[in-house]
Design goal:
16 helices, two-stranded antiparallel sheet, globular, Gyrase A, domain 2, alpha+beta, 4 domains
């Protein structure tokens, strides 16, 4: 990491770091607290909280599920980030943070600009007015059928592969649209390369670029577009250097630099607000580049607060809000269906308290839980 940092003596020389995009990164400078801090704050009268990890885990899940946020604010993260200015302007909208940014008034901006990878360049989506089209879906949908010899998909029964790896494993068109199937196929397809360590956005870009090999004209067009970005960055920086050499002050010479310029900042945030950031910026509808920064920051949350991350991922990140109208339509009316729902949740690890909480959400009689799993006699 140090070879790409500015020569600032205040920067720690070695930090846990995740590379992002072409020149960016998210580095964890320091953190305060962890899962134990959340439990301690929630059970302040008990000091260190409970002795059982399972009980602490259930408590953290309850807090996150019911949006009891102040205990989460007892955990803090301080990151050092480098990102393009157009992404920084999205990140800075999350106002419950402390930021100190590299100043182009005081220092000369380094020649470091974002250029999109081939897998990140796409046309405007026909439906989403603020996003790009899904290249994996589009390319997989137009990839020619493989007919000789037909190879079965290794992941979906009854489907024929459109990509076949050197070891004979195949993946179908529909299989390519499933990240889990792509992850399992990657080692066979690309000389042992696996998805291990890849974030979802890295995985997505990787597969777009793999599929582009089958569309040489399209790939050449994207390479030409990518060069347009690079050339414009070079011209802008040459003009910037020219203005500085002519005696123009740094604070106004910088105005010719594009949004692709990289900036750096310290970014301090508590866990509650960080989770809010991650919920919004890791959403599939968020811009791919900002998702990459959310995913990088998330890797550190998983390490520092594993129980909180597990609860957040289950209750918030992969969950959703349901309206009253949707709930009325989705609520199982027949008792047989209600029993099936509760049994399935029980098999997923839900127990009496959580099952009754679910009953209250869905309008199911809580006594059905006691009937299915009678309380133990004292």
């Amino acid at each position: 990491m140090s070879e790409e940092l500015h020569e600032n003596p205040e920067y720690p020389p070695e930090l846990p770091t995740r590379r992002v995009l072409d020149h960016g990164f998210v580095a964890l400078v320091e953190s305060m607290g962890g899962d134990h801090s959340i439990v301690q704050a929630a059970r302040v009268s008990y000091g260190k909280g409970t002795k059982k990890v399972s009980t602490d885990k259930a408590l953290i899940s309850y807090l996150i599920r019911h949006r009891h946020t102040t205990p989460l604010e007892m955990v803090e993260f301080k990151f050092l980030m480098r990102m393009p200015v157009f992404i920084a302007r999205q990140v800075v909208r999350h106002r419950m943070v402390s930021i100190n940014e590299y100043s182009a008034r005081y220092s000369i901006v380094p020649d470091r600009f974002w250029v999109p990878s081939l897998g990140a360049i796409a046309e405007q989506d026909a439906v989403n007015r603020q996003g790009r089209s899904d290249q994996v879906r589009e390319l997989a949908g137009t990839l020619p059928e493989r007919t000789r010899p037909p190879v079965p998909c290794s992941f979906l029964s009854g489907e024929t592969a459109i990509l076949v790896a050197p070891d004979g494993r195949g993946i179908s068109r529909r299989g390519l649209l499933e990240p889990a199937h792509r992850d399992a196929f990657a080692p066979s397809w690309s000389e042992g390369k696996t998805a291990a360590g890849m974030t979802p956005t890295e995985n997505y870009v990787y597969w777009v670029e793999q599929l582009l090999h089958f569309f040489p004209e399209r790939k050449a067009k994207l390479e030409a577009i990518r060069e347009v970005y690079a050339e414009q960055n070079r011209r802008s920086y040459a003009l910037y250097e020219q203005l500085l050499a002519g005696g123009v002050a740094r604070e106004i010479a910088r105005c010719v630099l594009p949004l692709s310029m990289y900036t750096e900042w310290y970014w301090k945030i508590d866990l509650h607000n960080l989770m809010h950031f991650l919920k919004l910026r890791m959403d599939p509808h968020a811009q791919l580049e900002v998702r990459a920064y959310g995913e990088a920051a998330a890797t550190f949350v998983k390490e520092v607060c594993p129980m909180a991350w597990e609860a957040f991922e289950n209750e918030v990140l992969t969950g959703t809000l349901v309206s009253g109208a949707e709930l009325r339509v989705l609520r199982p009316e027949e008792e047989t269906a209600q029993r099936e729902v509760l049994t399935e949740l029980y098999e997923l690890g839900y127990r009496e308290r959580r099952l009754k909480e679910t009953c209250r959400k869905l309008g199911i009689d809580e006594r059905l839980v006691d009937e299915l799993w009678p309380p133990r006699k004292p």
